[in-house]
């Protein structure tokens, strides 16, 4: 079972397909969760080793803890990211439209110069997101629905990784730029795992993993 899981996952990574399997193994679901946690733990330990032991400097990543949020409020960014970057991986007009509205909410937050999880200008940001997202949907829907799925899948994973580059506090040295490229690849691979989970087990399963991981990370 375990070798079959890794062979299936490797096959998906090399050629993503938006097919939802009728037979779903809870062992495979468990292994996906384990793979995600192990991968991120290894990346985190390597980052701490390089910056803490070799360079003797703090990591250039913005750190957050649960105390930075009101109780359970950290769940909202996780859900928003899953709606934006995982929901449209099963291509339907409705999922793409909702995802583009969610993506436009990030743009609206940037335009209004507010954190996307902030309540500042909330109504204004929601209205802007609905209008911009709907416009983007009518412009891009045919392109996105007809695009090669592998290209479509990895484009979304790349957007997800690129958004996380805003977690880097500064780009003041060549080493940080090198770290940023590795960080981009690691986040992209994490997005691939979440994408595989979303396609094979549904959006709820990827949201649960994302929420649990971020909650543990910020303890």
Structure write-up:
With 219 residues, the chain is mostly helical. It has one domain. It has eight helices and no strands. The protein has helices at 2-14, 26-54, 75-85, 93-111, 122-146, 149-164, 174-201, 203-217.
Helix and strand arrangement:
Elements lengths: L1 H13 L11 H29 L20 H11 L7 H19 L10 H25 L2 H16 L9 H28 L1 H15 L2
Helix pairs in contact: 2-7, 3-4, 3-8, 4-5, 6-7, 7-8
Q: What descriptors fit this protein?
A:
8 helices, 219 residues, 71% helix, globular, mainly alpha
Distance between the termini: 33 Å
| Anisotropy-based shape | globular
Q: Biggest sheet, open or closed, and with what strands and sense? A: none
Tell me the helix content: over 70%
Beta-strand segment tally: 0
Radius of gyration using CA atoms only: 18 Å
Let me know the average pLDDT.
Answer: 84
Low-confidence stretches: none
The SSE string, one letter per element, is HHHHHHHH
Number of domains: 1
Structural class: mainly alpha
Number of helices: 8
Task: Report the portion of residues in β strands.
Answer: under 5%
Task: Describe what is shown at a glance.
The protein is mainly α and 219 residues long. The chain has helices spanning 2-14, 26-54, 75-85, 93-111, 122-146, 149-164, 174-201, 203-217.
């Amino acid at each position: 079972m375990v070798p079959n899981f890794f062979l299936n996952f490797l096959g998906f990574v090399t050629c993503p397909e938006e097919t939802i399997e009728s037979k779903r193994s809870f062992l495979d679901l468990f292994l996906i969760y384990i793979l995600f946690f192990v991968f991120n733990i290894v990346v985190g330990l390597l980052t701490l080793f390089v910056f803490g032991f070799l360079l003797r400097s703090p990591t250039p990543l913005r750190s957050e803890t649960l105390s930075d949020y009101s109780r359970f409020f950290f769940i909202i960014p996780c859900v928003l990211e899953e709606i934006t970057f995982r929901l449209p991986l099963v291509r339907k007009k409705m999922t793409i439209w909702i995802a583009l509205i969610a993506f436009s909410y990030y743009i609206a937050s940037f335009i209004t110069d507010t954190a996307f999880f902030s309540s500042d200008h909330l109504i204004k940001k929601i209205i802007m997101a609905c209008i911009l997202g709907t416009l983007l949907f009518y412009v891009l829907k045919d392109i996105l629905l007809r695009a090669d799925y592998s290209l479509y899948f990895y484009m979304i994973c790349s957007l997800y990784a690129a958004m996380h580059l805003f977690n880097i506090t500064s780009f003041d040295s060549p080493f940080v730029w090198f770290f940023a490229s590795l960080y981009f690849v690691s986040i992209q691979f994490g997005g691939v795992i979440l994408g595989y989970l979303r396609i094979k087990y549904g959006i709820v399963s990827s949201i649960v993993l994302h929420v649990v991981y971020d909650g543990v990370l910020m303890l």
